Structures are given as structure tokens and as C-alpha cells.
Amino acid sequence: MTLAIFRVMLLNLLRDRGALAMAFLLPPAIFVIFAAIFSGTSGDALELRVHLADTVQSERTQQLTQTLREQSGMRIVGSADAPEASVREAVRDATADAGIVIRGSLQGRPDAGQPPILIIGDQGRAMAAAMVMGQVQNALESALPELGVERALGQVQELTGGFTPEQQQRIGRMLAREADLPTEQPRLVGMQELGAEGGADGAVNYYAGAVAVLFLLFSAMQGAVTLIEERQSGVVDRLLLGPGGTRVVVSGKFVFLSVQGTLQVALIFVVAWLAYGLDLPGNLLPWLLTTVVTAMAAAGLALALCAACSTRQQAQNLSTFFVLILSAVGGSMVPRFMMPPWLQELGWLTPNAWAIEAYQGIFWRGEPLDVLALRWAVLAASGLIAFGIALVLSARLARA
Amino acid sequence: MSALAMEAGTVLAVDDVHFSWPQRPVLRGLSMRLAEGELYALLGPNGAGKTTLIKAICGRIRPGKGRIRLDGEETASCAVRQRIGLVPQELAVYTHLTPRENLEVFARLAGVARRDVGEAVTRVLQAAMLQERADDLVRTLSGGYQRRVNIAAAILHRPRLLILDEPTVGVDVDARGSIHQVLHNLRAGGMAVLLTTHDLEQAEALSDRVGFLVDGRLADQGTPQQLLKQYFGDARELVLVLRQTPDTAQAEWLREQGLTPARTASTWAGLQPADSGDAEHLSGRLQARGMEVRELRLRQPDLNSLFLKLTGHEAAP
Questions:
Q1: Listed range (A141-155, A314-328, B216-230, B232-246) with the worst mean pLDDT
Q2: How far apart are CA A258 and CA B252, in angstroms?
Q3: If pLDDT is split at 50, 70 and 90, which confidence band does A260 have?
Q4: Strand, helix or coil at B313?
Q5: d(Cα B228, Cα A398) in Å, to the nearest integer?
Q6: How many of the other CB atoms lie within 10 Å of CB of B261?
Q7: CB A219 within 8 A of CB A261
Q8: What is the pLDDT of residue A79?
Q9: Residues B165/B88, Cβ–Cβ less than 8 Å
Q10: Could you tell me if B136 lies within 8 Å of chain A, comparing CB atoms?
Q11: Fewest CB within 10 angstroms: A36, A294, B269, B297, which?
Q12: Contact present, A272 and A278 (Cβ < 8 Å)
């Protein structure tokens, strides 16, 4: 009998092209968009538009601007001899993501509170200014290494009381580039980015799971609303006389939504595998288990919510509210590490966080089975408990 | 033993059933019988308790007092309720499926064994005269066909009692005729059929017996002919439509003639003795009192007249 309801749901989906597209085309499409955006922020694909103005136009500043123009990750826009006010204007009206104004000599000690190079950023794109700051530091180090030497010598001179005439002569020659600068010093701070070996970009990995749960919740809610339609049309009245009652209806929908959800998630991860190199074939079984329990959790929650509502309108409003809140808090919209600690903790109350962490555990961190088992258990239990609640509520409301 | 004895062939026995919602009593000592192959129409104004009675028969609500039995067994039991077929007022089928697909689904949900589904669907498609449109989507069918699918989905498991809630609401005259034919056939097959309707013409044409439910009690029940004879004898009903609304004196005179306003202020109706004279004579008397007659009819009283008499309400159009 459960299969009969499964068949109804399947035919409903197959004969409604809009619902079919919503279920199976939209999730991979949205994933590709998210992946394109967020893989850019962590890789070379991101290109910031930077308005660079050099108001000094000295040999050194020209050397710096030339190096900045050659840096990857930035595209220099605007006129180089624009005044500082124009650069501010460009950042404010978003024709540039950030601005660099060289407004003082790069020789000698800078005045306090008046750095010779000013980075102009917008609060709404704070990350852009920070990235440009890093690029400028990098350019200074490679284009004008003598600048660092000069500053260091100045400090040494202050501390030691000065150099001998012979030392000053050698320093002068070196700074005038008549003698070689000391060989490049090893950097104090290095950077190493960790990733899955031979796997996809971290953001791609994260958003495959994040988008998957978001869509699981949305389509489960859409499918579960039929529970209310059946109650209103009298189908449930009819079925209450049969041997299965509402139990059959709710069970059939639970099974269908779990299968549909598994297929939806599969499509997203297949795209992640084919387009971004996610190692799906190498992690097929743990992925499948995570996907099935996540789909069960989404199906159970959606059915419980719809079983508690008396009208379609009420269910639609409530489900939109819940899906958006769960997805925002659980990390489907913004990565969880960017959230304040209390919000990250709150995220554990959502299926999104458990599912995203499970997928990250499989594809990124290579977590052992005992850690994954806890995540699977939480997702499966929440799905089954919610399914139980849906059964009880449906039976109670049907008798009202 | 119940107030009404169970006779042979009785399918449904409702005995002294009481039910109250928290704020108000709905059923107040209702008793009725329904026999094999009998079609019974339950009539009554909105709020009289028809839907509540259906819910009680289907086991959706438990009566505070009284018994409801199907073939002698309490309908509180799940197994007994499975011998009932229900046709809700709304179209309670899946409109994105064909009639055949719907029937296959509802057969399984009604407990028909998988191996018997094909036979049940064929039988029911025939009984509901749906064969030629069996493979079209329900949403593309006309109202009459849709209503027949609604009925067909309730008889797959060969119920002993079929309950229909307003089966012809919103369908045209032709479609209504085909639904009547289906119900006739089911009755002829031995099924007991209980229907609620506001369509008194339908009730009169279809039913073996009718019952008037007023304020939670059966005001009266019997065959339509028997009830009409009992309440109206040989009297005829006069329906008078005036060109203008009568003034106070004219209205007073009309009341003295046994007429009361009906539907509009210029329409009056009332029973007239069989020997009250012909229409021409009456028309002359009305004109003599300054009333211009647009229409004047003398007719046999029907269930509408009886409905008005028993419930105090005009039947819903």
C-alpha cells in the first residue's frame, strides 16, 4: 500500500515539468553558481578591480605601480594620475572594489599617521581591501627590496648611534643600486593551504553539501504539502476507512521524499565530481549513507511540519520560514566558520550543519567511521523521530 | 436490544445516536435503518447534522450515546468500517492520474489484494461507465466524468454501504443523469446507498426513502410518495408571482388565503384544497384587489414543499 502512494507521488512529479525542473535541474544549477562564486574567493579566479593613483610619480613609485599592474588577482582600473578624491568616489560608487593611492615619497621615514600608501576600501566589500593590502605588501617586497633595508638601517642607526663613514659609503652604494642588495631574506611568515589530495577546491566541497541540504529541505516541503491537499480534498477521509489509514499515506510520502532527495543530492555531487574533481567514486559508500540519512531527515521534518498545518497557505509560509532559518543557521548560505561561536553552536540544532560536516568529514578531512557514525546517527534519528511525529499528528488531525 | 429491531437485510442500523461538539449538541437521538439494495436520501438544512452523522457512521467521531451497526456489528471496529465506501463532496481523487491509475491506487489502499486489482478496476470502470475515458488524465475530464471517478474509487472493495456526500454538486443536467444511472446500477447490485443532498428533485427521483434531518433528529422519513400523501393529501400548491410587491392590506388578504411569501417579496405560495377553484377564478379575485398577476401556477406539492414545511427553510437552490 505504501508503494501505491509512492506511485502517486512519482507520477505527480513526472507529469509536472515545473516540479521536475525544480527538483532535478535547479539544485545542480545553483550549486554550479555557488561553486563558481566561492571557489573564486579562495583561488586565482577572483579578480578585484582596483583604482590605482600615483600622485608622486617618482622613479620608485612608478616601479611599484608597474609591479602592481603585473600582479595576478587584480585588475587596475581608472586613471593613474587621478586625485585621491576620485579614487574614493570610484570605490564608493563601486566602479572599483578598492583603491590604492600613493600620496607620499617612499624615501625616508614616513610621517606618523600619514602613511605614503593608502588603501581605500568599502565596508560592504571589506575583504577586497584586505586582499589588496596583502598584494601591495607583496609588491613592495619584490619591487622595492631596498625600502625594507632602508627602514631596517634607520632603526639600527637609532639603536646603535650611527655607522662609520666606511659603512655609510657602502650603504649609499647599495641603495643607489651600484652594489648588489643582500640576497633575498627568507620570509618570516609562510603560507600553506591544505586540501583533499587530488580532490576539489574546499569551497566546492563545502557548497556541494550546503546546497544539497538546502534543496532537500525545499523539495521535501513542496512534496509534503500534498498531505494537506489530500486532507482537504477528502482523499484522507476515504483512506481512513481503509486498512492502512493515514499511516500508509505518510509512510509512502516519507519513502518517496527520501528517494527523491537522494537522487537530487546525487546530481549535485555528480556535477561536483565531473566539473570540479570531487572524489565521489572513491567515497561512494559513506557519501551514499550520508545522503540517505540526510534525505530522511529532510523528509521527516517536512512531513511533521505539514502534518501540523491545517492549510496549504499556512504550510507554505511556515516551511519557507523554517527552511531559510535552518539553512542560514546551519551553514547552507554562509560557511559556518564565518559565524560567531554562539551561532556555530546553534547550528548543531539543524540538519544542515550535521550533513555539511558529514560531507566535509568524508571528502575533506577524511574522518574515521566512528566520527561519521555519530553524524549519521543524529541525522537518521532526527528523520525517524520527525516521521513519527508526522504519523501521530496526521492521525490526530484526520480524526478532528 | 435496540429501539428498532434489526430486520433481515438491514445493512445500516443507527439507534438513538447522540453527539455534541463542545459548544452545541448536533445529533439528538437519531435512529434510522438502511436495507440492502436501498437508496436513502438524507435531507436537511445546513447545520442539521448530516455531515456529523456521516462522520459518526465512518467512525471518525464517537457518539456520546447510541449505537451504529453495519450488518449487526459496531462500526467502531476498523474491520467493519472497511465495508463502507465513502464518496466525499470534493473531488477526492488524484487529478494528475488517469481514472485507471486512480482506481489501481485506491484499490490497493482499500485493501484489495494485488492480484485482484486488475479485475476490480475493470469491474468498477464498467459500473461507473468510465471505460472510454479510462486512460485520460482526470484533470482533463468533464465534471460529470470526474464525479463518476470519485464514486468509482469508493466501490473497488465491494462495500456493503456506500455513502455519498452531495454527489452532484456543480455538475450539469446531463452529467447528473449519468450519475443517477450509476447509482441505480449500484443499488440494483444490492449495495445500500446513503446520500446527502440539497437537490430535492434528485432525491425524489432517485431514492427509495428520504429522511428529513432537523436539529439533530429525523423529523420524518419514508418514501417520497408516502410522505407527500401524508402531509399534503390531495391539496395542490399555488405559486403566485405578482408584478409589484403587495401593500400591507393586500399582503394581509393573501395571508388570509393561506399564502406566505416565498423567496421574493412578490412571490407567494401556499396549499389550496383540491376544490379551491380554477386559476382564472383566482386571478379575477386578485385583480379585483388591485394586484396584477405575472404568473400563477397550481401544482402537485413536491419534496421542496415538504422540506419547507418540515424544516421551516427553503431548500438551497
A1: A141-155
A2: 73
A3: very high
A4: coil
A5: 40
A6: 15
A7: yes
A8: 87
A9: yes
A10: no
A11: B297
A12: yes
Whether residue A195 is predicted with pLDDT greater than 80 in this model: the reply is no
A51 residue type, one letter: H
Residue B208 contacts A where some CB pair is shorter than 8 Å: no
- Residue B3's pLDDT band, with cuts at 50, 70 and 90, is very low
How far apart CA B17 and CA B6 sit, in angstroms, is 16
Return d(Cα B82, Cα A329) in angstroms, integer: 47
- What ipTM was assigned to the predicted interfaces of this complex? 0.78
DSSP class of B163 = E
Closest in B92, B96, B108 to A238, CB measured: B92
Partners of residue A1 in chain B, C-beta under 8 Å: 108-109, 111
Rounded (10°) angle between helices B303-311 and B224-232? 60
- Confidence tier at B2 by pLDDT (50, 70, 90): very low
Phi and psi at residue B4, in whole multiples of 5°?
Answer: -105, 125
Distance of CA B92 to the CA centre of its chain: 19
Q: Which residues, other chains included, contact A194 with Cβ-Cβ below 8 Å and sequence gap of 6+?
A: none
| DSSP code of residue A116 | S
B192: exposed, middle or buried (Cβ count in 10 Å: 0-12, 13-18, 19+): buried
Paired sense of beta strands B209-214 and B217-222, if any: antiparallel
Contact B109 A11 (CB under 8 A): no
What grid cell was written down for A219?
523539495
Pairing of strands B84-87, B65-70: unpaired
Q: Which residues contact A322 (CB under 8 A, 6 or more apart)?
A: A217, A221, A301, A305
Strand order through the sheet with B24-35: B24-35, B10-21, B65-70, B73-74
Residue A314: per-residue pLDDT: 92
Residue B36, CA distances (Å) to B11, B31, B188, B210 in order? 6, 17, 9, 15
Nearest chain A residue to B108, by CA: A1
For B308, the grid coordinates are 419547507
pTM: 0.77
Q: Are B106 and B153 in contact (CB under 8 A)?
A: yes
In 3D space, the residue among A137, A132, A107 whose CA is nearest the CA of residue A121 turns out to be A132
Please say if the pLDDT value at position B149 is more than 90.
Answer: yes
Query: In B173-301, which ranges are E strands?
Result: 192-196, 209-214, 217-222, 236-242, 260-262, 264-272, 293-299
Q: What is the DSSP letter of B231?
A: H
Those residues with Cβ within 8 angstroms of residue A39's Cβ, 6 or more apart along the chain or in another chain: A45, A201, A203, A204, A276
pLDDT tens per residue, range B248-273:
998 998 888 888 887 788 888 888 77
What residue of A is the nearest CA neighbor of B81? A241
* Chain B nearest C-alpha distance from A315 (Å): 20
Contact B66, B143 (CB under 8 A): no
Give the cell for residue B226. Answer: 408516502
Residue B298 CA to residue B270 CA, distance in Å, equals 10
Which residues 226-265 on chain B approach chain A with CB closer than 8 angstroms? none
CA distance readout (Å), A209 to A39, A166, A204, A226, A344: 14, 66, 9, 27, 17
Judged on CB neighbours under 10 Å (0-12, 13-18, 19+), A366 is exposed
Cell of B18: 447522540
* Burial zone of A281 (CB within 10 Å; 0-12 exposed, 13-18 middle, 19+ buried): exposed
Residue A45 Ramachandran class (φ > 0 left, ψ -120 to 50 alpha, else beta): alpha
* Sequence letter at residue A73: G
Helical axes A351-360 vs A284-308, angle rounded to 10°: 170
